[in-house]
Amino acid sequence: MKLFNLFRSGSSAPVARERLQILLAHERSARSQPDLLGLLREEILAVIGRHVSFDPDKVRIEMDRGQSVTTLAVDIEIPNGQRLSVVPPVGHKVTDTLLSSARSQWSNGLV
Amino acid sequence: MAQVVVVTSGKGGVGKTTSTAAMGAALAHFGEKVAVIDFDVGLRNLDLVMGAERRVVFDLINVINGVAKLSQALIRDKRLENLFLLPASQTRDKDALTEEGVGKVIEELKTKFDWIICDSPAGIERGATLAMRYADAAIIVTNPEVSSVRDSDRIIGLLDSKTLKAERGERVEKHLLVTRYHAGRAARGEMLSIDDVLEILSTPLLGIIPEGEEVLRASNLGSPVTLNSPLSAPARAYFDAASRLKGEHIPMVIPTANQGFLNKLFGRKAA
Q: Interior CA angle at B225 toward B134 and B243, to 5°?
């Protein structure tokens, strides 16, 4: 029976099965992770945007998956021409004390 | 308690509409009250496959927009008095299909029918996601072929995440319906076998519909295959699948090839 199979060129189903198994294992693992980088980008920019104004187009967020560690690089270009200003968070009431303490930290170079 | 069932696949041309018509007619034949809904806005075909294309007056979007009442849009089948069709709109904008509107129509249908079978369009866009949105159960139509199996896997992922049931932490009951199965080609290793498909998709099997000339003949004539050739192999497979959907235990028989002389000599088994 097996010998008979050898003379047959039509046995392509096992190849199909193997290709599908490999592909779907890959696609399923990608699907189970939400868009992590997109989420990180959104949240990081929201936090930084609360305190500094910058051009959202001048932001680079990269994730580099290595063998044992993964690095996350966040590169945000903040223009020098403008004074670093504290932008009050939208929808939040910022007290004067908070603002002034933040300002003094800026000027002291603590941040 | 009404059951909302989506017939879906991701890939086009695998037999969603044919299966919707055949399963709907089979359930109606068993005495169940059935509504089949076409969700393929702009490319409706369920009306044609069921032979009701000349009786369409109002459609799903007319009902959603309040232009027509549900009772005005539902078309009663001429052969089975408890089988109804709600056609898709052929001309209007796809955005007219709203989640809220579909939800209302399905709620109303649930008060009148035992089964609401939603024929999904191909793809994973709005029509397809809305067709599955309110489903209690899903029939995933798959051909034993690589692209169909891959797309079914994708659809299974969507059923587990984008349906109302999934969002509530419940599960949409999933059933695999393998169509266009050719026992001889599977036995010769030319086509994925049932075991291959089941192992890859790990979804319970609802039925195996063998490839058969009766299926094409039935759609040519505008009659579900379960009504047009009820004794044919594909129709019998659809009747069995419909019984299983109702919760009956019908043993699954994998179709076997008509063995040729050489195959008999070598004792080859199908699948």
A: 55
Among B146, B189, B266, whose Cβ lies nearest the Cβ of A19? B146
Which pTM was predicted? Answer: 0.77
* A22 CA: distance to closest CA in chain B (Å): 10
Q: Taking all residues of chain A, what is their mean pLDDT, rounded to a whole number?
A: 72
- Kindly give the pairing relationship between strand A59-65 and strand A70-76: antiparallel
Q: What is the pLDDT of residue B136?
A: 98
**Residues B39, B61: Cα–Cα separation, whole Å:** 10
The dihedrals phi and psi of B75, each to the nearest 5 degrees, come to -105, 125
Q: Which of B201, B191, B174, B200 is nearest to B254 (CA)?
A: B191
Residues 16-45 of A with CB under 8 A from B: 16-17, 19-21, 23-24, 27-28, 31
B chain contacts of residue A13, beta-carbon cutoff 8 Å = 186, 189-193, 196
Contact B116, B2 (CB under 8 A): yes
CA distance B20 to B18: 6
**CA–CA dist B47, B267 (Å, integer):** 46
Q: Are B2 and B110 in contact (CB under 8 A)?
A: yes
Q: How far apart are CA B60 and CA B74, in angstroms?
A: 9
CB-based contact B5:B245 (threshold 8 Å): yes
Angle between helix B194-201 and A13-32 (nearest 10)? 10
Average pLDDT value for residue range B45-49? 97
Choice among A64-68, B51-55, B147-151 with the minimum mean pLDDT: A64-68
Is this complex's ipTM strictly greater than 0.85? no
Q: Which residues of chain B does A16 touch, with a Cβ-Cβ cutoff of 8 Å?
A: 145-146, 192, 196
CA B213 – CA B195 distance, rounded (Å): 25
Mean residue pLDDT of chain B comes to 93
| Residue A82 confidence (pLDDT) | 57
Q: Residue B262: what pLDDT?
A: 53
Q: How far is B155 from A11, CA to CA, in rounded Å?
A: 28
CA B12 to CA A109: how far, in whole Å?
62
A24–B150 CB contact, under 8 Å: yes
Contact A24 B192 (CB under 8 A): no
CA of A22: which chain B residue's CA is closest? B200
